[in-house]
Amino acid sequence: MGNILETKGLNVGYGPIHVIYDLDFEVPDGEVTVIVGPNGVGKTTLLKAIMGLATVYSGQVFFQGTDITKLPPYERTKLGIGYMPQTGNIFSKLTVEDNLKMAAYTVNSEKTYHDKLEFVFNLFPRLKEYMPRAAGTLSGGERQMLAEGMVLMREPKLMMVDEPTAGLMPKLVNDVMRQLEKMAETTGLPIVLVEQRAKRALQVGDKAYMMRGGKFTFSGKADALANHPQLNEMYLGAVDTVQAVKE
Ligand SMILES: Nc1ncnc2c1ncn2[C@@H]1O[C@H](COP(=O)(O)OP(=O)(O)O)[C@@H](O)[C@H]1O
Ligand SMILES: [Mg+2]
Asked: Which ligand is nearest to the CA of 14?
């Protein structure tokens, strides 16, 4: 199967702060690709660059073979790049129903709102019961379910999820990982999963990357990374943030 997403020689940052260096990233269609790495190495920045939310200094982003490097974020959403940010991914004061409705109407579609809802309820039946509730009253794991549901309402062809288990109690971590596994199995959607809980994420993934200092230090099969010494080093707390100022 081909790659649904690729970056070539990508250099990214925020204004003068250069974060990502010469990155070649490949996401095979229909698979789960996991990115692991310590805090502050540029994982979120890569997802933002793919969405058009960070400054690309050089290099390209290709989606389904098309160069999208210069497209604004909403055009990328319309093309089918789904993105669930780590924070601020739901509107807590709105009801679950209004959250899903807003998400549905960001993208024009042949499908009706009700068809999209059925699709989401089929995957996450519990959301149906929660429809009248304010989203802020859901538990951490349920909020992530809603946030995933919102991305699905936009009918993505690719789903990128940034640290869905951050800040969750250990008991809920597995629930959220299982939700993602179920989504991958039922929909066949290609997923990019960024996680600091590397060992669990690598069980979900097919392909994996390890990121350090804005570069990939491993790319290959998820199970090969699971048994790689680099993974233990990461758990020993080696933290390398990138703060190089671009010349
Ligand atoms: N909006 C921003 N402006 C300037 N620097 C940022 C911004 N967001 C992140 N950074 C910096 O970019 C680096 C990588 O951050 P990030 O991509 O969030 O890492 P990760 O997701 O791997 O934890 C960090 O040094 C961080 O301080
Ligand atoms: Mg991050």
From this structure: 1
